[in-house]
Amino acid sequence: MDLYDWVVFGHIMAVILLFAAHGVSAYAMFRVRSEKDRARLSAILDMSSGSLMVAGIALIVVFVLGIAAAIMGDHFSKAWPWVAIVLLVVITGVMTPLAGTPMTRVRKALGMPVQGDKKTDPPRVPGTDEEVAAAQAALRPEISAIIGVAGVLILSWLMRAKPF
User: Fold this and answer.
1) Is 135 left (phi over 0), alpha (psi -120 to 50) or beta?
2) Sequential pLDDT tens for the chain (164 residues)
């Protein structure tokens, strides 16, 4: 195998890691919506946060190795890698308001720390059961799952077919 093959192999392995780690968080979103016990809910949200850190690192590796493979394979003269990059950016941008923001609202309602909190901030006061339930009701994991799966299918097709 030459270097290009190793870069593509690394890209594929990083995609698999990304899917595995992100799948934990996607599954957690379904569970968070229906869980009533605050302790279990907090544990699920902690697990989701941890998996998203791994997914974020994997996404960076996917992106870097994908760009490297496209350069090495002289694919940037075609449109499909550009479409793949735009699609990846759009999906990532759409998932924040659809999944990330509502999950953060649940964390806040439980009194959990969230990204952006400072260590000097006072501890967050947990909300009422009604506030937690309202934050949970705002979750729409089905929409996120449909967009995510559709994106994976389109990206996979672009990588395999190299249609244009």
Assistant:
1) alpha
2) 899 999 999 999 999 999 999 999 999 999 999 999 999 999 999 999 999 999 999 999 999 999 999 999 999 999 999 999 999 999 989 998 999 999 999 999 999 999 888 888 888 999 999 999 999 999 999 999 999 999 999 999 999 999 99
Q: Which residue blocks in the chain are alpha helix, DSSP H? A: 3-34, 38-72, 80-95, 101-109, 129-137, 141-161
**Who's near 11: CB < 8 A, 6+ residues apart?**
62, 65, 66, 68, 69
CA triple 133-134-135, angle to 5 deg: 90
Query: Is-contact 69 134, C-beta < 8 A?
Result: no
Q: Which domain holds residue 27?
A: 3-161
Whole-model pTM?
A: 0.85
The total of structural domains in the chain comes to: 1
Residue 70 structure tokens: 């496209």
Give the span between the Cα atoms of 68 and 20, in whole angstroms.
Answer: 23
Assign residue 10 a region (left: φ > 0; alpha: ψ between -120 and 50; beta: otherwise): alpha
Nearest one of 35, 60, 61 to 48, comparing CA atoms: 35
Tokens matching residue 40? 């279990």
